[in-house]
Amino acid sequence: MRVPELGAAYGEMLRRADAVMTHAGLVERFIALGVRPEAVRLGPPNAVPPGFTPDAAPLTAEDVDRLAFPAPEGSGRSGFFPGLPTIGMYGKPGDVKGTYDLIAALGMVAARGLLGNLLLLTGTGERAAIEAAAAAAGIGDRTWILPFLPHWRVPGFIRACTATRRPG
Prior knowledge:
Elements: H1 4-16, E1 20-22, H2 27-32, E2 40-42, H3 61-67, E3 86-90, H4 99-111, E4 117-121, H5 127-136, E5 143-146, H6 154-159, E6 163-165
Parallel strand pairs: 1-2, 3-4, 3-6, 4-5
């Protein structure tokens, strides 16, 4: 809504919606946008999906190897290295989201002899570009790209990482 070009489209979509699910604190905001009061529905307050718990078991090396897209030809990638620091990113990747800056920075760290893993839960949208950037940065052998996973698997992904970032 903060982007002018999109705000008008979102506003029109909300005004025409049969139902808008929100929580009590935003009801007046939606009505002020022109949403019909009878279309506003209250949803559960900040519900956490079942199974989404910080106590989840981390993804194992076997999980990562099984879930990851196949390694690019000539990448030199073998099995996942759970004993090394693992930097993780989940969500939609992109240049403006810092994905390629992260890859370049990890390449600089690797060039200094510090080894680690890059674990990306990003789907296929920029897979070829990510693989090319990882190869150019010299970390193609330590980069794993996973498909998007169900929400209850995300805590295990996070727990498999030393540090994570959700772009946005």
